[in-house]
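A brief tutorial aside. Many learners find it easier to grasp structure tokens once they have seen a single protein encoded end to end. The record that follows does exactly this for Cystathionine gamma-lyase. Read the sequence first, then the structure, and try to relate runs of similar tokens to stretches of the chain.
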Amino acid sequence: MNDVGRWGDGTRVVHTTPAVAGEPFTAGPVFASAYHLGGADTYGRAHNPTWRVLEEALGGLEGGTTVLFPSGMAAISTLLRVVLAPGDTVVVPGDGYYLTRALVAGMPVEVVEAPTAGPYPSFDGVRLVLLESPSNPGLDVCDIAALAEAAHAAGALVAVDNTTATPLGQLPLALGADVVVSSDTKAVAGHSDVLLGHVTAADPELAEEVRAARTTGGAIPGPFEAWLAHRGLGTLDLRLARQAENAAALYDALKAHPAVTGLRWPGAPEDPAHAVAARQMRRFGGVLTFVLADADAVAAFLARSELVYASTSFGGLHTSLDRRAQWGDPVPEGLVRLSAGCEDTGDLVADVLKAL
Ligand SMILES: *Cc1c(COP(=O)(O)O)cnc(C)c1O
């Protein structure tokens, strides 16, 4: 039921497992280190049926073969370990998730940083181009199809960190990328109660290499976490719809506010990223970025707000706000990433305006 053409998104995320008479709609978590041999599963580090149903669900949504990981960083680091050899060159976003840059900085590879909005360097001699669109926290967007074409012409592999967009917001493999990486800790699981991540590859052989690296490396997800994320996935369409509605209303309320500068949301027609985003994204999500005067202004905002939590994650039911400079992102002291939650739009806008 995952074909984009035939079914709507609500149907695609609800119907992710086949109907079997006498079985529950979605099977519960299977806790096993060892299995009776002779079936599909042998040992808990290699196989788990609860991973498998979620991998099939995510792979179906993204159009590739999915391998689940215990966090987004476990997914990214395993992909890099599989794809990169010592001395290879990797291009990473200079304005993307900071731990990705920290990770490659510690690897024996050449690192080239490029801003998500460009300009990009020549991809000659590059092994892997890792893109992040929309980027976290700046919400810039890059033209995935054009960059994938240029990278492929140079013989490079293209991976896209699709965390901010989710598989309902953007399909990087359909745009020409080879691999998707995602932190499902954010909107995919969506309830701020689980860490999880995945790699989806267009080439099943690459996916099997990543799976083998997971088995050997031993960084495996817990079945309970996979089950919780699968439960959350069923409402992704509903949650993203409310979050985007809230983000649009907040954008309108904030764009002329004297305390706010640098407001970004790719869904806004006046946003510099909107033209490219509208071409390649299926929906724009609930994450906005803006700048308040300084760290004190952010603290005062949070103290006055009743609904916005200070929290360094996003994509959950609760509206949350993160001042990114506190984590070392190269951004202004007062820059915040606000993740619109699923509260009532009127309540949220009123609370944010009151707090400002
Ligand atoms: C959070 C995040 C990650 C890391 O994911 P974890 O699940 O926290 O390990 C990677 N990329 C992006 C864009 C993120 O927002």
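Self-check: The chain has two domains: 9-233, 236-355. If you spotted this yourself, you are ready for the next section.
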